[in-house]
Write a structure and sequence with these properties.
- It is a single chain.
- By secondary structure, the protein is α+β, with helices and mostly antiparallel strands.
- It has one domain (21-337): B-lactam Antibiotic, Isopenicillin N Synthase, Chain (Jelly Rolls, Sandwich), CATH 2.60.120.330.
- Helix content is 26%, strand content 18%.
- It has 7 helices and 14 strands.
- The chain has helices at residues 12-17, 39-55, 68-82, 86-90, 155-180, 264-269, 324-336; strands at residues 28-30, 58-62, 102-104, 121-125, 198-204, 218-221, 227-232, 239-242, 248-250, 258-262, 279-281, 289-296, 303-304, 322-323.
- The strands form 3 sheets. The chain has an 8-stranded mixed sheet.
- Strand 8 and strand 9 form a beta hairpin.
- Helix 2 (39-55) packs across helix 5 (155-180) and helix 3 packs across helix 5 (155-180).
- Residues 1-6 and 131-138 have low confidence and may be disordered.
- The structure holds 2-oxoglutaric acid (AKG) and fe (ii) ion.
- Residues 200, 202, 218, 223, 230, 232, 238-239, 279, 281, 291, 293 line the site of 2-oxoglutaric acid.
Length: 338
Amino acid sequence: MAADSEIPPQSLLQAASQTDAAFQKIPIIDVSNATNPDPAIRHQLANQVRDACINVGFFYVKGHGIPEEDITNAVEAGKKFFELSADQKLEFDSRKSSNFKGYTALLSENNDPNGRGDLHEGFDFGPEGNDENSQGEKNAMSGANVWPTKYVPEFRDSVLSYYREAIRLGRSLFPLFALALDLPENYFEDKTKEAAAIMRVLHYPPQTGPHDDRVVGIGAHTDFECFTILWQQPNIQALQVLNADKEWINATPIEGTLVINLGDQFARWTNDIFKSTVHRAINRTGVERYSMPLFFGTDYNVKLEAIPSCVSPERPAKYEVVTAGEYVRARLQAAYGH
Ligand SMILES: O=C(O)CCC(=O)C(=O)O
Ligand SMILES: [Fe+2]
């Protein structure tokens, strides 16, 4: 066994009280052993995940098992869609949909209230085929997806193949997050039955002109859900993560990895022991950039209530209890203004 497994494990609250959120680097974690039959190996991996979650809120995963071909096909389909004319793309305008699905044009979103609109366009979709069991008040994005099949016939199959792979990866991470929180490995299983994950394909045109922190690809924000699985285009530096000293740390793409970042559902659930870290993206490279985030949340009827292992007399519960569905709906309405 590795030497660090001989160090007596620190309690979660103890570890959380000694965090170093002025991180300079984003850790890389090899998750190929996430489902290893040896519990000692899974625990060791969960310790790395804990460190990343309480100090940074971001980590790269390698050994994620998503075939390169699924990534390429999804990105290529996205590129073809964004190359359509503005009028063609607006046939799928998400403002026409009651559930935030479809196309969002440049500048129609504003993630940072101090910003002037985000310089990216996007296409949003969710799970297919579970409309019946996920309808209703509780689910802000339930209901049918829209697909640009008439212009890009392979779009739906290509992005959904990647989506399914990313969901598989996301499901394999929940037991690690549970162990990292001193919880039973299956803690999140009954809370993530629907895999209420929304995925986006994003396009950031290159930005030129004078530097203005209010005009960026995606303004400074935190994500809403438990965690995000982000593919970002290789060789393009755009994504930046804010540390506790208010320095922007580059999340440079690393070949063969995906970025995982925690969102506000996890921060609320863990009473801020898991960090939902502010980030933004600016594409000043002179070339087009594409990225694909998938936001993995809990089922929308789950109450986001501080987990007992994350609360103590020194660290009382900080957030009022809301359901995941109420929370996501409010945040989406604030970002998209509808
Ligand atoms: O494109 C990126 O690198 C970041 C996207 C992002 O932060 C988001 O969609 O929430
Ligand atoms: Fe984000």
